[in-house]
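Subject: mismatched residue count in predicted assembly?

I count 356 residues in my input, but I want to confirm that the predicted structure covers every chain. Input:
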Amino acid sequence: MNDPVEIWSYLSRAPLWWLSCTLLVYMGSDSLAARLGRPALANPVLIAVCAMSAILWTTGTPYADYFDGAQFIHFLLGPATVALAVPLHSNLAAIRRLAAPILAALLVGSAVAAISAVLLAQAVGLPENVVISISPKSTTAPVAIAISEALGGLPSLTAVLVILTGIIGAITVTPLMNLLRIRDWRARGFAVGVAAHGIGTARAFQVNETAGAFAGIAMALNALMTSLLVPIIVSWLLG
Amino acid sequence: MLAPVAILFVFQLVGEVIARSFSLPVPGPVIGLALLALTFTARPAVKQRVEPVSRVILSHLSLLFVPAGVGVIASIDTLSENWGALTLVLLVSTVIALAATVATFLLVLRWTGNGHE
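Triage response: the counts match. Full output below for your records.
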């Protein structure tokens, strides 16, 4: 029998270890959320991230070592976005029929997400580069990072703020919509896709398939809308 | 199983190539999404092949955000100085954006006289 410390030091640097660990931790988090009846606060992303971070912290593993393995899961975000073509296509008739509310809600939602973030960040006295970094927070990470970089923000901070926004949106959407007594799944899904990109979309798919499809549409459209609107909003509010 | 996965990868690849070639502000996967939806209209058989794999991936979409989410904890230093203010801003702004989007959607839906699901 070899020394377990040696085996550990080999495995902890091999991709397979952290890849398996991420999968198992997520499966555990998801079944925990399911057993609790999927309440908003028991978000599987949030539980898995906290549990995984605790494991990394306990074992003293740097994030870069972890990401060597976890990148294979991270990589699937691209194909998953392409896979949204299926629900998008299935709802094409509904989208065409609802073109007016979809475009209006996209324009208003995207603008409100950015303007409110910039104004609030200024109001609490955050420095200018942080205000810029927060402005594209509601869109999907690759777009937000590119925008932040182009406008003079901090891309790594933007990446963090985008993920946090997604988790906040996924947690708040159900109680907020119930409070506002909104029962239209198309409207609920569309709102969370605009405000909280893919993490919100993941939540929507867990609650209702129609909501998921509309969230996916909103997320894709908002990638385009945010890259058009945010540079204008930032130069207008910070110029 | 293999063909639908290849379809998703190739459409992403084509999207990335288009996005880079014309330096578009839209990410490659979003362009791939649009192209695949267009392909479904032209060739309905392609959709039938991709559908099962798409359903599996989208029902576990949450999993794919875990590695990036762990990165949030890893970069806690960037946040530590302002984390209270940042969380407050994100929370309030996200709730306002959700409410504004849903309100606009439903108002315009009513104006255009199409309230039925």
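Residues 4-75 of chain A form one domain. Marking this ticket as 'not a bug'.
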